[in-house]
Design a protein that fits this description.
Blueprint lengths: L1 H7 L52 H15 L10 H7 L3 E2 L2 E5 L8 H11 L2 E2 L20 E2 L15 H7 L6 H14 L12
Antiparallel strand pairs: 1-2, 3-4
């Protein structure tokens, strides 16, 4: 168990998830919860999801979660679906939370998707994995210019703010929260694939 945690999990302070950059909640108008939803929906049928990837023995799940969301929103913004570079995030995304300067994206030692998004915004783009392939270990950041994707902002699904997750997990089953589930469903269908993060240390 200790070996698994040291290899795959990130031991972070869950009491306050706040980053140095301000997220932009104005980048989208939140979807109405009273709108009609299909009984089933799969973004793979709409060319918004790349094939399944394998992080190997590197604790980089945060990077894969991040690229999956960005790939989807890029494709749904009238661009071609491309597979983005998790290795670039592993090597180059090292932003920290403003609440804890010691809690930073750490490559194969774990990280947070919202810090990954901010790295992409700061860098102006993220390259495709064709030009920056995944090797599954920490390397030095390579400054390359290659085809990729960009984003200008990010936001959390309402009702699922990161600072609330630890308390929700300890005090109630978040899956029984009807509003949270409705928000997930509406935003998934309206805006595209979502990045989901679970701090396994809370389990």
């Amino acid at each position: 168990e200790a070996e698994f945690k040291s290899m795959y999990l990130m031991n972070i302070n869950t009491n306050n998830y706040r980053s140095k950059f301000k997220r932009d909640d104005t980048v989208r108008t939140y979807a109405r919860l009273d709108q009609s939803l299909p009984t089933s929906f799969d973004w793979r049928n709409h060319s918004a999801v790349t094939p399944v990837k394998n992080q190997g023995r590197c604790g980089s799940c945060w990077a894969f979660s991040s690229t999956g969301a960005v790939e989807g929103v890029w494709a749904l913004s009238n661009h071609s679906l491309i597979s983005l570079s998790e290795q670039w995030l592993v090597d180059c995304s090292h932003l920290c939370l403003d609440s804890s300067e010691s809690t930073c994206n750490g490559g194969c030692n774990g990280g947070l998707p919202w810090l990954a998004y901010e790295s992409i915004i700061f860098n102006k783009y993220i390259p495709s994995d064709h030009y920056y392939p995944y090797i599954g270990k920490n390397e030095s950041c390579k400054n390359i210019t290659a085809p990729g994707a960009s984003i200008t902002g990010w936001s959390h699904v309402p009702g699922l703010e990161p600072c609330e997750w630890p308390y929700s997990l300890r005090q109630s089953n978040i899956l029984s929260n009807g509003t949270a589930i409705d928000n997930i469903e509406v935003h998934l269908v309206t805006y595209g694939p979502l990045s989901v993060t679970l701090n396994a240390y809370m389990l």
